[in-house]
Each structure stands twice: as structure tokens, then as C-alpha cells.
Design a protein that fits this description.
CATH architecture of the domain at 13-186 and 228-257 and 293-308: 3-Layer(aba) Sandwich
Radius of gyration: 19 Å
CATH class of the domain at 13-186 and 228-257 and 293-308: Alpha Beta
Distance between the termini: 23 Å
Amino acid sequence: MSADSSGYWKGKSVFVTGATGILGSWLVKRLLADGATVTILKRDHVPQSELELSGAIKKVNIVHGSLEDYWTAERSLNEYEIDTCFHLAAQAIVQTSNRSPLPTFEANIRGTWNLLEAMRNNPLIKRIVVASSDKAYGDSSRLPYKEDTHPLAGMHPYDASKSCCDLIAQAYAHTYKMPIGIARCGNIYGGGDLNFNRIIPGTIKSVLHHESPIIRSDGQYVRDYFYVEDAVDAFLALAEATDSKALQGQAFNFSPEKPLKVADVVNHILALTHSSAKPTVLNQASNEIKEQYLDCTKAHTLLDWHAKTSLDDGLAKTIAWYKAFFRK
């Protein structure tokens, strides 16, 4: 975690939703290191989150509640005099969305419009970043996804919820001239992801417990795998860019632009851990997009942003985190 050499974040009052998740935890740590005052919205107590384990939770203001309640958002922004918001909170597990779509729609869609509406007439708000997803594009035979050529067309519950929150953010930006940037990321991984049904933390957990890794799909699904500290860099760069009116309301793709099959990612982890385990391939995935990956030319050109971490380096850091985590 590097310090903010520009001093841009020193003294800023930042509100982070979804702060106990993998991206939120690492983003909060970076903001604190860079001198920001951070307030988080905390719905559930997650004692094993990186936010808790790192001790960062002791350095932030905490608002208890959820974004499904408009007045929680309104109170949070006003009482803590927020000038910057990172909206990361979401129900983000595809299988959970497929089993129970309504809570996903409530959290992801209502939560987004509540927060944006609370910020609409707030004169203190200077910059807003909304976390969308590559899933917002839906299925496409034309890859990689590009911001200016691919419509938002999610057809499954999680994907549709991210299409909606993305479009709502664009609507608020363009109608009310709000300083919003939208981040569409590939699959974020790294230490602190406690959703072990995801392929990277699930595989590492299996290997460290001397079990066979489980691949729910046929192993041939293709995704971008995006190391969390690179994602933090992307979100900070996007937030700073919203100071420019020309970039407000725009969406940016972020990924390392090196798509991989699920089976190849599992094999990378097995090699890095010197494991002889053989994956169990269930071939049971359904209502998921087979191939998706991003073109990030726009972020390179307009934000001067590039992913810095190779897959092997990112996985090595992630494996080290989980080794320490499971020793506790």
C-alpha cells in the first residue's frame, strides 16, 4: 500500500459503502494512509473482514444501517460533512442473486438511487464513484467489451441489477450535473475475500485444507481477474478525474486485460502452492455468462491508469494472506 505522494486525499471527508467487502477494506486502508477522514456504512458485523483484521475499523467513523433506508444515507452524508463518496455496497454473489433476486434488487438498485438522491442537492459533495461491473454489459458475442460500443444488457438477476444501477448513476450525472464516475471492473480478487464460493478464495481455501478444489462450471468460462490493490488505484484515479467536468458521468472499464479460463486460474494456484490436488469439475453453472472481458483503452488514455500486478504476483500475495488468515 503506497502513500499518496500528491497529497490529494489529505483532509478529505470520504464516505464508503460496502467497506467490509474485499474492495472496500483495501480502499479504506489506502484512504486512511493518504490522510482522508473516512466514514463507513456498516450493515452487518463481519469480524473476519480485512477492515477488522487490519485494525482500520478502529480509525473510521461508523454509521450503522443499510442503503435500502433513504434516511440513513441522508443522515450519513450530512452529519459527517462528506465531500467524496465511493459506493461499493452490493449483493455481489451471482448464485445468491439467482436463488433470491428481490434482496439483490433492493440492495443494488434501491440502494443506489437512495444514495444518489441523498447527494443530489447536497452542496458539499464534490466527487462520487459508483461501482458497476463487467456483468452490466450482459452476454455479447463481440469481445472485449468497450464503453462506447457495448450497451448495458444484463439478462440475469445480478447482471440486470448492475445494468440498472449503472444507468441510474448515468441519469443522475447527466440530468442533475452530478460529479459521478462509474467503474466497470473485472473479477476482483485478493486477501480478504470471504466469499469462498468464488473461484480464487475457494481454491486457495481447499488447497490449504488439503482438499480437492471445486470448479462449479466446466472450467472453460473466461473472465478478467483483477488484483484488489490495482482496483483501489483505479477507483482513486476515477474519483480524482471527476474533478474535471468533461469526465463527469462517464463510465470506465478496469481490468488487467488478460482474460483467463477458470481452469487456468485454478492451475496457477495449484502451481504456486506446489499442490498435487486435482480439481473436481461439477459442470453445474447456469445463468452465468460464458465469456466476458474488458477493453481498458479509455482508462489508459483519459485517466493514465494501468493495472500493475501480474496474475502470479497477485495470487502470491493473496495466498500469503489466506495462509496467515487460516493460522489465526
